[in-house]
UniProtKB/TrEMBL annotation:
Organism: Azospirillum doebereinerae
Organism classification: Bacteria, Pseudomonadati, Pseudomonadota, Alphaproteobacteria, Rhodospirillales
Region (Disordered): 127-153
EC number: 4.2.2.-
Protein family: Belongs to the RlpA family.
HAMAP family: RlpA (MF_02071)
InterPro entries: RlpA, RlpA-like_DPBB, RlpA-like_sf, RplA
Annotated RlpA-like protein double-psi beta-barrel domain residues: 27-114
Keywords assigned by UniProt, alphabetized: Cell wall biogenesis/degradation, Lyase
Matches recorded under CDD domains: DPBB_RlpA-like
GO biological process: cell wall organization; peptidoglycan metabolic process
Protein's name in the database: Endolytic peptidoglycan transglycosylase RlpA
Keyword Cell membrane (UniProt): no
Length: 163
């Protein structure tokens, strides 16, 4: 039994993340999300929290475990990587990043019943549509809902454009 299987609490043939499991562990429950307030703060893995990344917090799964998280009501799913510990509120099984919650359609409700299943690394594929170019840069923060424009300034006049 792998550490991920033990953390989930089930006997499973095969190993998580090897690409050769006969069955992969899964668990179900309530997921929540955390967002802009935590952006850039350190996670349990040591990396800064990136609200735009597809990540999740779990209380005991090994860091780097990949999970396919499926919204039970809608069938939408995303693949996330465990990089933090949590949730820190009882009765929840995962804390999703802002982007994972957005992609699952749970930003407004805040909570969702989900099924999470460990995913071998080899089964995750990223596809780029034909004719597309490099992915656009993502902003540090989501755009304001009211459509306003954020502007910045320089502490020293004449330093604009200089490294």
């Amino acid at each position: 039994m792998t550490r991920a299987t033990a953390a989930i609490g089930g006997e499973v043939a095969g190993r998580v993340g090897t690409g050769t499991p006969d069955a992969t562990p899964s668990f179900a429950g309530v997921a929540s999300w955390y967002g802009p307030r935590h952006h850039g703060k350190p996670t349990a893995s040591g990396a800064g929290y990136d609200m735009w990344a597809l990540t999740a917090a779990h209380p005991s799964l090994p860091m780097g475990t990949r999970l396919r998280v499926t919204h039970s009501a809608t069938g939408r799913s995303v693949v996330v990587t465990v990089n933090d510990r949590g949730p820190h509120t009882g009765g929840r099984i995962l804390d999703l990043s802002w982007r994972a919650a957005r992609d699952l359609g749970v930003l407004r409700s805040g909570l969702a019943m989900v099924v999470a299943q460990a995913v071998p690394d080899e089964t995750v594929r990223v596809s780029v549509p034909p004719g597309s170019r490099k992915a656009p840069a993502r902003p540090l923060h989501p755009p304001p809902a009211d459509g306003s424009l954020l502007a910045g300034g320089y502490a020293t006049f004449g330093k604009a454009g200089q490294p």
